[in-house]
Amino acid sequence: MMAMMVVASATAFAGDSDAFKAFKKSFKGLGYAEAEALVKSSIDQFANAQEKAAAYNMLVDLAYDAFNKQSTIETENQLAKQMGQQEKPIDKELMAESAYNAICNAITCDQFDQQPNEKGKVAPKFAEKNAQRLWMGPRNSLVNAGQEAVQAKDNAKARKYWELFAESDEAPLFAACDRGPQKPFFGQVARFAAVFAYQDKDMDKALKLCDIAMKDPEEYEGCLNLKLEILGNDLKTKEDSVKFIGQLRDIYAEHKTDGVMEKLFNMLSATGDQAGADKILDDALAENPNNFVALADKGLGMLNSNPAEAAKYLKKAAEVKSDNAAIQTYAGTALSVQAQNTEDPAQKKALYKEAIGYYDKAKELDPDRLNSNWGYNRYNAYYNYYGDDAPETKQAEADSK
Fold first, then answer.
1. Residue 221 and residue 218: Cα distance in Å, rounded?
2. Sequential pLDDT tens for the chain (401 residues)
3. 145: closest CA among 157, 163, 134?
4. Are 231 and 198 in contact (CB under 8 A)?
5. CA 100 to CA 278: how far, in whole Å?
6. What's the pTM?
């Protein structure tokens, strides 16, 4: 009986594998770069996920200790500065790289740490400690490190730090951490990381970072537009356009915004599917008859082919946004084109008179024509309504120059 108990105990409390013992012995005294190389070259030799988690946690310890040393100096320097004392030298690059390495290795450690042990149980050993020590100090330091990299015109390094800051928010390791303190700047940092990824033509990563940034309501619209720009970048073939239209449909199903709707409408129109394009606008107007973008696009789309119908939509759009000089100009233009196509003199004059009202409103809103080119069309409407020699026409001509 005693022999059986001894065997059972030895089995239940089996120690490290020979490979892991040799690894730990070799690990002692190594710098970070050597230690990282040793972990990568040894990882497949370990007996189980628990040993792999322990190996990566040793890297976390090494990197965190280096970060903490520099962070302590930084704190001491802040106090020394307040007291007028001499500050100690600090290695900010080492501090940033150590924070980066600690977080990366902690996330990898957690992937192994969450795997079942030989008894089939999940008993993470390192998760709680790593989440507590890395979430605030080291992770937030990546934001400052990225800002300093931007100031040094090192966009690659800024992207590296901000990308990890953004993506680590989704790591299961940090699921229970308090996100309140990062709320004022999280979305903005993620958006900047997305922009840098886009500039590097890393489209998949840029799209992922856009999705992360869009969790912030303040960044939602801007990042959605950036996402559309990324998806629509470098369309070379019909197949590219068809794929983009499919992506736009998927996005529009999830994010029913006017920006996505207009992009989808324009792409369908450009690829010859006018019926599909019109349906997008018609459905939007059925849901909201005062949808400004749908009204404007619907009217502009038929400005030459059916100016009378175009005028209906553009006048409605001008009513919805009475402070928009451009739409006032377009409404006047639709009426002017309708007048040109009208044979009846009285009706023609009435249409020009109505058009003048919209042009005058555009002039009032945008006297310097910064956003709406109402000048010549307004003069033309005055000419056809008042006549060539009328003082009103002469003034309209002067206003157009």
1. 8
2. 334 333 333 333 457 999 999 999 999 999 999 999 999 999 999 999 999 999 999 999 999 999 999 999 988 888 888 888 888 999 999 999 999 999 999 999 999 999 999 889 999 999 999 999 999 999 999 999 999 999 999 999 999 999 999 999 999 999 999 999 999 999 999 999 999 999 999 999 999 999 999 999 999 999 999 999 999 988 999 999 999 999 999 999 998 899 999 999 999 999 999 999 999 999 999 999 999 999 999 999 999 999 999 999 999 999 999 999 999 999 999 999 999 999 999 999 999 999 999 999 999 999 999 999 999 999 999 999 999 999 999 999 999 99
3. 157
4. no
5. 50
6. 0.78
Three-state secondary structure string covering the chain = CHHHHHHHHHHHCCCCCHHHHHHHHHHCCCCHHHHHHHHHHHHHHCCCHHHHHHHHHHHHHHHHHHHHHHHHHHHHHHHHHHCCCCCCCCCHHHHHHHHHHHHHHHHHHHHHHCCCCCCCCCCCCCHHHHHHHHCCHHHHHHHHHHHHHHHCCCHHHHHHHHHHHHHHHHCHHHCCCCCCCCCCCHHHHHHHHHHHHHHCCCHHHHHHHHHHHCCCCCCHHHHHHHHHHHHCCCCCCHHHHHHHHHHHHHHHHHCCCHHHHHHHHHHHHHCCCHHHHHHHHHHHHHHCCCCHHHHHHHHHHCCCCCHHHHHHHHHHHHHHCCCCHHHHHHHHHHHHHHHHCCCCHHHHHHHHHHHHHHHHHHHHHCCCCCCCCCHHHHHHHHHHHHCCCCHHHHHHHHHCC
